[in-house]
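Is this the right way to post structure tokens for a design question? Let me know if I should format differently. Anyway, here goes:
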């Protein structure tokens, strides 16, 4: 039997959004194309990155949160298990989240070995079990909360006959080569501490540690020097105890995708590509390197990649466009190389040997064709060139390095300022997005503002937006001045951030080019002074107006309209924005330098980022899960009729029960002539109306009638005409006899007194599907009640109305309580205490009853989508269990009189 050919198996995983179909390719794809796959000695598997699903919602989840990582890991692992034979060599390559994926796959291989199987389905099933075992062994939270769920899962699988035994797997002793570009965390969150908190306390997501496995013969990690997004900070290996010739982590010029590829102008990305290709080639990997001939037209891919390199290639902006909302944080090699990430064993980086910077980055910074100013290069480093590792002095003599390091440290003061401006910008942007949900803005403001054109423009844009955004469109259109002021503030902050970024680059360029950094220009100093004076003036007028106004001279005070605008629009949030902006811009440089270098400050920031905030977010997510779970359970109970109890009489027979309180209204029209009667009548006791004369029924004949009964009686008003000389008494017609419009008011029952402390008020009124009803609810006012404490609407002693709580006089504590109670509300996006009308004890046919502007009385017409009893309740927080449903309702007090008017019926 012929001996099996020893193979080189190449595994490749691309970055987020990168795939074979993408126009601009990454280095992973370029390396895959460069492989010589003509014979049986070398095979490869290329896996598209997360976020490339053809189903767009999954693609978005993959791009934003890393959804699909497990599938990618299993696909790569299954391919290897299917094709591996003892003696084969394994190579792994990845970029960004794909690098994370490859590192997980390598960890899975070295931990569990390779599963066996006879069919593709069996391989996949065994691969899933091996992956579960690997995660159970390596991926753990601090308090091991995941163990319970894993035990339950394993018990269920065991009952269904699923078995896994690691001893049956093939053992892999070593990995030949791993090459990755800028590894980042696979699971993304809007805030890094969120992902860290989930991984540490709820469910393990991040790599279990940063420990390098010595069974990897050679590993190369290409890293970006210039990416300014903390979300894309690299996941380094810990070099402690690892030989330098076994693990190389090298820093290259450019941002994340300048290193891993994916931009239209990608000449910078070929520099780390060639480095990794050469290192892999030295460990046995074969590329297409034979010079092309007529019989062999494949190009020399190694030579092609070398030709494409350009140290002065285009360096993209990692914060361009919406990328500016990623957290600002330039990469500082010294900090990234010495950091503990959690209390878990091995979850730290302690790289004590000198970091390696690629020579192209140093040359570009010193004398490149394009200005380049890396800010994160440490004082001391080694340089990696085409001829290997060289000492720093070959590129930057010690005196120059010392001067650069001292000057560079001062530039980090500007980074500190820009970080504050970034956080203030995000806060201001969130405030624009949130204030429509937290402020009651009257609709009349849209029609009384002088900025009606702005309101019209907002409405025009709102027509092409989804209906779910109507609350925001309404709020912005009703108060366009507030919207414009906040928008201008965000634009100003973004401009300030850009200005600080340019100052940082300008000063670092001068440092690298051995020029002296310049101070602020006179124009910049003037603008900074004017802006500061304006901010101080606004804050003084806003915070101290009640004390300062009587003492200030008139020329210092703005017009009354401006004072009113400031008091109305410069809220506490806006004031905080202005205060922190001034702190960022005006804090003396010496103070910033001492603060940044103060050990207590640095330790506090690191503790906050790595421990306090992750725990806070983890606790917050657990609390939200409980609160929203409560909301879901209550919604299910309510939909199944376990909350609103129907009235017995209506439940037994809707034809027998009386709907006390419904007003039947009949439109005006002609009177009716009963058969055999000479006098017309009206329904529901109305009197026949004649403007003059008396009503009577006169026989008439239908015009043109030839068949059947053509006679009918016509109700008319007959005016008598007295007899005159030579003329007998007669009469004349004064028009038809009519019936006036009238509403029949039924007697009020006990159920017509609505109390807002009821979880669900049964009205004893049956509504018919498709009919229209006018619901009138008149809340009791303080002057209407003998005891205002039991009549007037209050929530925990605070006055409320059908419009909800009043925004005036709300304390910070009350805002916090409202925020905690929000997930418990029966309707999440409806203001508290708003009245909800519900048709039927089960189902979900509900209507929010909105009052007219300036009135607490409700006059709302509804059209039920089903038949059922009418129930009323106010929107309040609830608990799902029976004894606690009214827990939050117990603080409510107040009553209202209910009347329901039926549709106006024809006469």
């Amino acid at each position: 039997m012929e001996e099996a050919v020893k193979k080189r198996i190449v595994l490749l995983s691309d970055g987020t959004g990168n795939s074979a179909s993408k126009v601009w390719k990454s280095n992973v794809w370029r390396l895959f194309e460069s492989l010589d796959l003509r014979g049986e000695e070398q095979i490869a598997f290329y896996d598209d990155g997360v976020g490339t699903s053809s189903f767009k919602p999954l693609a978005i989840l993959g791009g934003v949160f890393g959804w699909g990582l497990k599938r990618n890991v299993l696909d790569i692992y299954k391919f290897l298990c299917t094709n591996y034979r003892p003696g084969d060599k394994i190579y792994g390559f990845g970029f960004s989240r794909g690098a994370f994926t490859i590192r997980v796959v390598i960890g899975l291989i070295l931990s569990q070995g390779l599963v066996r199987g006879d069919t593709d389905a069996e391989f996949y099933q065994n691969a899933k079990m091996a992956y579960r075992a690997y995660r159970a062994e390596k991926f753990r939270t601090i308090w091991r909360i995941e163990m319970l769920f894993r035990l339950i899962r394993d018990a269920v699988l065991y009952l269904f006959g699923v078995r896994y035994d690691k001893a049956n797997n093939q053992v892999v002793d070593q990995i030949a080569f791993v090459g990755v570009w800028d590894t980042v965390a696979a699971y993304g969150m809007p805030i890094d501490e969120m992902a860290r908190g989930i991984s540490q306390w709820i469910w393990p997501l991040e790599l279990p540690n940063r420990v390098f496995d010595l069974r990897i013969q050679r590993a190369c990690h290409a890293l970006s020097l210039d990416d300014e997004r903390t979300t894309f900070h690299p996941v380094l290996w810990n070099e402690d105890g690892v030989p330098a010739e076994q693990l190389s982590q090298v820093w290259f010029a450019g941002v994340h995708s300048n290193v891993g590829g994916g931009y239209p102008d990608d000449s910078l990305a070929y520099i780390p590509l060639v480095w990794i290709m050469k290192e892999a080639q030295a460990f046995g990997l074969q590329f297409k390197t034979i010079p092309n001939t007529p019989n062999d037209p494949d190009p020399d891919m190694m030579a092609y990649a070398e030709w494409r390199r350009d140290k002065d290639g285009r360096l993209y902006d990692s914060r361009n466009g919406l990328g500016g909302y990623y957290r600002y944080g330039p990469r500082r090699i010294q900090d990234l190389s010495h950091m503990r990430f959690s209390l878990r064993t091995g979850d730290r980086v302690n790289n004590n040997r000198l970091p390696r910077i690629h020579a192209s980055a140093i040359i570009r910074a010193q004398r490149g064709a394009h200005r380049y100013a890396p800010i994160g290069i440490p004082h001391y480093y080694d340089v990696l060139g085409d001829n290997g590792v060289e000492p720093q002095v070959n590129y930057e003599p010690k005196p120059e390095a010392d001067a650069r390091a001292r000057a560079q440290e001062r530039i980090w003061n500007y980074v500190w300022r820009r970080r504050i401006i970034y956080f203030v910008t995000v806060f201001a942007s969130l405030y624009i997005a949130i204030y429509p949900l937290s402020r009651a803005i009257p609709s009349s403001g849209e029609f009384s503002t002088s900025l009606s054109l702005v309101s019209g423009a907002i409405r025009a844009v709102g027509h092409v937006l989804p209906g779910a955004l109507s609350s925001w469109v309404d709020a912005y259109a009703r108060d366009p001045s507030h919207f414009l002021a906040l928008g201008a503030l965000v634009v100003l902050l973004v401009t300030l951030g850009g200005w600080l970024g340019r100052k940082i680059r300008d000063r670092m360029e001068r440092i690298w080019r051995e020029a002296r950094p310049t101070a602020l220009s006179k124009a910049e100093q003037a603008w900074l002074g004017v802006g500061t004076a304006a901010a101080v003036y606004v804050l003084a007028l806003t915070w101290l107006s009640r004390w300062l106004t009587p003492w200030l001279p008139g020329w210092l005070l703005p017009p009354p309209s401006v004072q009113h605008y400031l008091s109305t629009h410069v809220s506490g949030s806006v004031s905080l924005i202005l205060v922190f902006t001034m702190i960022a811009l005006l804090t003396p440089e010496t103070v910033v330098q001492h603060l940044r270098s103060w050990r207590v400050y640095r330790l506090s920031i690191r503790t906050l980022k790595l421990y306090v905030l992750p725990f806070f977010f983890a606790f917050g997510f657990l609390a939200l899960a409980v609160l929203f779970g409560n909301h879901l359970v209550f919604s299910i109970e309510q939909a199944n009729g376990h909350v609103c109890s129907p009235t017995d009489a209506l439940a037994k027979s809707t034809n027998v029960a009386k709907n006390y309180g419904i007003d039947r209204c009949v439109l005006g029209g002609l009177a009716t002539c009963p058969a055999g009667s000479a006098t017309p009548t009206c329904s529901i006791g109305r009197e026949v109306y004649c403007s003059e004369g008396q009503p009577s029924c006169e026989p008439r004949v239908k015009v043109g009638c030839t068949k059947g009964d053509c006679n009918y009686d016509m109700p008319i008003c007959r005016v008598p005409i007295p007899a005159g000389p030579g003329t007998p008494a007669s009469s004349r017609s004064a028009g038809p006899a009519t019936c006036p419009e009238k509403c029949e008011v039924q007697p009020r029952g006990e159920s017509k007194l609505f109390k807002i402390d009821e979880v669900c008020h049964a009205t004893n009124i049956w509504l018919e599907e498709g009919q229209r009803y006018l619901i009138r609810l008149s809340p009791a006012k303080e002057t209407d009640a003998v005891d205002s404490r039991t009549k007037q609407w209050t929530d925990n002693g605070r006055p409320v109305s059908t419009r909800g709580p009043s925004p005036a006089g709300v304390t910070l504590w009350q805002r916090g309580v409202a925020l905690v109670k929000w997930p418990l509300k029966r309707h999440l996006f409806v203001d508290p205490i708003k009245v909800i009308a519900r048709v039927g004890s089960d189902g979900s046919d509900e209507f929010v009853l909105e009052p007219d502007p300036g009135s607490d009385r409700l006059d709302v017409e509804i059209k039920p989508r089903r038949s059922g009893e009418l129930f009323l309740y106010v929107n309040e927080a609830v608990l799902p269990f029976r004894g606690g449903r009214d827990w939050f309702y117990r603080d409510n007090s107040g009553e209202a009189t209910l009347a329901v008017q039926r549709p106006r019926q024809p006469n």
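Format looks fine. Someone answered above. Worth noting: The chain has four domains: 8-364, 412-441+479-597, 648-658+746-901, 668-740. The chain has 25 helices and 30 strands.
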